[in-house]
Write a structure and sequence with these properties.
Chain lengths: 114, 111
């Protein structure tokens, strides 16, 4: 089935450690997005990419990095510079800029600090 | 993006229709209305979207008023699995960035 796969479902990070969250889609979507959700809060955009080898910062990009080397993959690295990384991370994809088609989401990765 | 207003919570009896309202009085001509829902600890699930006309799919119906200042999402026969937070979002199709999720409506379907 077509969809968005995020892994792992749960992730624990030690202080000072970088961790990478995986996001893969087989929907042939051009655009991919990373959001962060804190308890009881809405989603906040971290990074997005409209096309391979290009990406833009969202509202809260500090302490995060991304790459888009393949159309189907958009990994997010949470660096040690992110001082409050505990959150629910959501990846989404869509047909891309200019399209009215909706964004579709994965099931998320829950990151906690040890 | 236009601001949306939704009631914080609603109850619905199982098997009955759930009608979830959304006010978007500042919507612009080319902004679409999207509905998503989020079940606890899962990613948001797309439900339906529309511009001017009423829309229906296998999950729900979307009724948009003629002046487009409000809309209603209808779940025709609510089940316990429809218990979730429902979000109404308006945005332009050529926006490359974020969806703005407000507080949404927490729908509780009761037996």
């Amino acid at each position: 089935d077509g969809g968005i796969t995020q892994s792992p479902k749960y992730l624990f990070r030690k202080e000072g450690q970088n961790v990478t969250l995986s996001c893969e889609q087989n929907l042939n979507h051009d655009a991919m997005y990373w959001y962060r959700q804190d308890p009881g809060q809405g989603l906040r955009l971290i990074y997005y990419s409209q096309i391979v080898n290009d990406f833009q910062k969202g509202d809260i990009a500090e302490g995060y990095s991304v790459s888009r080397e393949k159309k189907e993959s958009f990994p997010l690295t949470v660096t040690s510079a992110q001082k409050n990384p505990t959150a629910f991370y959501l990846c989404a994809s869509s047909l891309g800029q200019g399209s009215y088609q909706p964004q579709h989401f994965g099931d998320g990765t829950r990151l906690s600090i040890l | 993006d236009a601001k949306t207003t939704q009631p914080p919570s609603m109850d619905c009896a199982e098997g009955r229709a759930a009608n979830l309202p959304c006010n978007h009085s500042t919507i612009s001509g080319n902004e679409y209305v999207y509905w998503y829902r989020q079940i606890h600890s899962q990613g948001p699930q797309y439900i339906i979207h529309g511009l001017k006309n009423n829309e229906t799919n296998e999950m729900a119906s979307l009724i948009i008023t003629e002046d487009r200042k409000s809309s209603t999402l209808i779940l025709p026969h609510a089940t316990l699995r429809d218990t979730a937070v429902y979000y109404c979002i308006v945005r332009y199709p050529n926006q490359g960035g974020k969806l703005i999720f407000g507080q949404g409506t927490e729908l509780s379907v009761k037996p």
